[in-house]
Amino acid sequence: MVLTTARRVLRSLVVIILVTMGSVALLSLAPGSAASVILGENATPDAVAKLNAELGMDQPLWHQYADWLGHAVRGDLGTSPVTNESVLHAVLTRLPVTLELAAMALALSLVVAVLLAIVSAAREGSWVDRGTTALSSVLLSVPAFIAGPLLIYFFSLKLGWLPVSGWARVSTDGLGANLRGALLPAVSIALTEIATFHRALRADLISTLREDYIAAARAKGMSPAYVMFRHALRPSSFSLITLAGINLGRLIGGTVVVEILFSLPGLGQLVVSSIVSRDLVSVQGIVVFVVVVYVLVNTLVDLSYHWLDPRVRKAATA
Amino acid sequence: MTSTQRAITKGPDTGTGEGDATEPSVPAVRRRRSILVGLAYTWLAVIILAAAFADILPLASYDRPIGLPRQTPSLDSLDLLLGTDQLGRSLLSRCVYGARVSLLVGAGAGLMGSVVGTALGMVAGYLRGRTDSVIRLIADAMLAFPPLILLLALAAVLTPSVSTILIGLTLLVVPTFIRLARANTLSWASREFITAARNMGASRRRILAREILPNLLPALGAYLPVVMAALIVAEGSLSFLGMGIPPPSPSWGGMISDGKDSIGDYPHLVFVPTAFIFLTVFALNQAGDHLRHRFDRGLHD
């Protein structure tokens, strides 16, 4: 148990090191060094070389990486040469918007998918099941950049229920306005996730419902709803947790798209504006931040299995 | 099961003269054909043919205006069938040429990535040991990047063009196929015929290429349509953000992005490319499900 946990954590650490190495190497791949971006196109080669030396860009790659890592572990992801703002500070000020969007989308998709999967699995093969399965294969093919404009058209412009764009802060505009603004973007990224969660949980529920202990519970005269919720749902929902961890990657991509579409001041908007202004230091910092968070979340998900599912715990210790 | 039962109950003496009456006849297993799957394959055939023969089709040029901007769809002429965009260019022509880019990028990156990924995954799964853990580590590191974030990071350092997007999308496919191929190789490598081949003195390369690879192809090939659908979505997202195929080449994601600001007054500017992406991605997903049910053993066992 302790051994598997340690092994899993170690593996994630190695992955994080590889990934940060890749990100640092990527920066040096760029045509035109960071210095020539800072100084503009008319800079003299001497000035560029001098600033490159100041930034450490003339050092060999491993030296640059060691230098970068030394700062990064102390929470210093560099300073943007374009805005002169600390990258970590820029990331942290925009993080709440992205987190709220991702959390809202994840919660929405899980609730809807669990309800749909229960309805499907309870009557496998019925028209209700076939209808929801068809609905979920349609949703699977609706990425955020398709869902977003359609939702804006119908719910904001035709019906006028929700704002077209913009972000309302909880502190100044109140929670209601904030949630109203976040709803459409969150739904846009939730649709695909509903489909993947529904598929996985439906399949798991159907195989669980064929187990002997379900037949035993039914034979004892328990109501179908009780059997479904108390006996079948919990053992079927573990793969949902793994899937949620993996899908977080697509969810992050989705937040970039909706933050641009709905002009929301989140991490995605920051990364896109940094790319447009060729601010590679910021791009690198944001990418590393996002990737490390993503790896850590998935490590925690894997580890949580041991705590949540007694069967895995037993298999690991035996 | 049912077909054998039927064959037994039919027996030799129920045969009533058709062909050889003494032979028990086994009726063909009836497969339920879904209309949806048929429609999906039809759409894919239409869009692939249209993209391939776009130059021969009687379509206006995709980068020259053919009339007033923002015309709504009409039946007046083929070029106006889906209306015109904000510069007066034919939306039908732009969607067809956009299909060419999307399909080319999706299929190209899907094929390159699956070839590289399968090769690495097979080596990892067959050799095991240290090679295996190194290759798995590389795959884990590549999977650690959320797809769109990896593409954006590449877009930051490389000037966007079809070839740089192909590279980025290929990088997305490789780790997935490493995992798929590795898992499949592991299960095939323990079979008797592999041991037999090894005992007969077959080289590693021969075993991998002639014994294992043919068995992997159906299962892995069945994943290609779904992977292509995901790649088309990724390319669309990138173009939507303005980091994809550079103009004037049309791309579906770029067309949605161009039209989204005037969606209130001219919704067709967004709805037309949206319909193309949706139908293509949906058709690829349906085809993928259909092929996986037929060829992926893991789903049945």
Radius of gyration of chain A: 24 Å
Oligomer: heterodimer
Largest sheet of chain A: none
How large a portion of the residues of chain B is in β-strands, by DSSP E?
A: under 5%
Q: What can you see in these coordinates?
A:
The complex is a heterodimer of chains A (318) and B (301). Chain A has 318 residues and is mainly α. Chain A contains 14 helices and no strands. Chain A has helices spanning 2-29, 34-39, 45-55, 61-72, 87-122, 127-140, 144-158, 170-209, 212-219, 224-236, 238-261, 267-276, 280-308, 310-317. In chain A, helix 8 (170-209) packs antiparallel against helix 11 (238-261). With 301 residues, chain B is mainly alpha-helical. Chain B starts with a helix and ends in a 6-residue tail after the last helix. Classes of the chains: A mainly alpha (318), B mainly alpha (301). The interface between A and B is large, with 51 and 45 residues.
Features:
heterodimer, A: 318 residues, mainly alpha, 14 helices, 80% helix, B: 301 residues, 11 helices, disordered N terminus
Question: Which secondary structure elements does this structure contain, and how are they paired or packed?
Answer:
The complex is a heterodimer of chains A (318) and B (301).
Chain A: H1 2-29, H2 34-39, H3 45-55, H4 61-72, H5 87-122, H6 127-140, H7 144-158, H8 170-209, H9 212-219, H10 224-236, H11 238-261, H12 267-276, H13 280-308, H14 310-317
Chain B: H1 2-10, H2 35-52, H3 91-127, H4 129-143, H5 147-157, H6 162-189, H7 192-199, H8 204-221, H9 224-240, H10 252-259, H11 268-295
Helix pairs in contact in B: 2-3, 2-11, 3-4, 3-6, 3-8, 3-9, 4-6, 5-6, 6-8, 6-9, 7-8, 9-10, 9-11, 10-11
The gist of it:
The complex is a heterodimer of chains A (318) and B (301). Chain A has 318 residues and is mostly helical. Chain A is 80% helix and 0% strand.
